[in-house]
User: Which sequence fits this backbone?
């Protein structure tokens, strides 16, 4: 389905019945990342799955997609569907969006799962890397996207999961240049939301990859501790939903029950 939000098309799907679950994908991903999970989730729940701004079939809205703007877009979809309370599951950037949503619309969250995501804002070094990424994607879009996707997986899984990685790259290459830059700019300026998670009164879960190349394992353990958040550690990298697919599904099922 398509929602017109501020003159921009926002793509989403709405399937199943029961307590709503909102799925939020990461950077260079789109709603298709949840395709293997949805058939399981709709057995017991209503599932809202959407393309965030500048990704998949959703258009861009200006030159910076802040996490707050993305959260407001999510709220517009839920409002359209008359949904007032949901379970949120966000992967990576989707987790940043979920946290921005939690800050603004806390009463609408039943539970929150941050998968391979963080409450921290970008360090100065990380901000510099975002600027480098913007230059790199402007210079050679295809090479940037392919390399960025490959680097999300552990070295071992880069050879073990070639078919799966190829699919992720294919979907990532559908992301328009403006969408990539707007997301990088938005992630670069995002706030630290430690207090949001710490003060949250709903159940919360962090899924952590022991070999995550994007977010350091020990810093995530510390975050979980500081914010009183339940956590699960998986053996592989940033792409837990692919690299540890069975564990991921089990953990999500357990969390939503």
Assistant:
């Amino acid at each position: 389905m398509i929602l017109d939000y501020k003159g921009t098309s926002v793509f989403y799907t709405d399937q199943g019945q029961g307590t709503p679950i909102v799925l939020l994908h990461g950077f260079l991903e789109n709603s298709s990342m949840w395709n293997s999970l949805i058939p399981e989730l709709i057995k017991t729940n209503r599932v809202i799955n959407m393309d965030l701004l500048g990704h998949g079939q959703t258009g861009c809205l200006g030159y910076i997609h802040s996490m707050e703007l993305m959260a407001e877009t999510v709220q517009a979809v839920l409002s359209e569907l008359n949904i007032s309370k949901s379970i949120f599951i966000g992967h990576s950037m989707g987790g940043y969006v979920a946290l921005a949503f939690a800050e603004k619309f806390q009463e609408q969250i039943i539970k929150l799962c941050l998968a391979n995501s963080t409450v921290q804002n970008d360090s100065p070094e990380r901000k510099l890397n975002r600027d480098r990424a913007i230059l790199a994607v402007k210079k050679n879009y295809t090479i940037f996207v392919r390399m960025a996707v490959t680097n999300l997986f552990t070295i071992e899984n880069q050879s073990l999961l070639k078919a799966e990685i190829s699919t992720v790259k294919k979907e990532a290459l559908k992301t328009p240049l403006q969408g990539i830059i707007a997301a990088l700019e938005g992630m670069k300026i995002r706030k630290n939301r430690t207090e949001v998670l710490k003060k949250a009164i709903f159940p919360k879960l962090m899924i952590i990859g022991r070999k995550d190349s994007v977010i350091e394992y020990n810093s995530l353990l510390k975050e979980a501790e500081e914010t009183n958040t339940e956590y699960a550690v998986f053996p592989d990298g940033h792409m837990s939903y692919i690299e540890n697919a069975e564990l991921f599904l089990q953990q999500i099922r357990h969390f939503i029950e």
The mean pLDDT is 98. The longest helix spans residues 124-139. The longest strand covers residues 8-15.
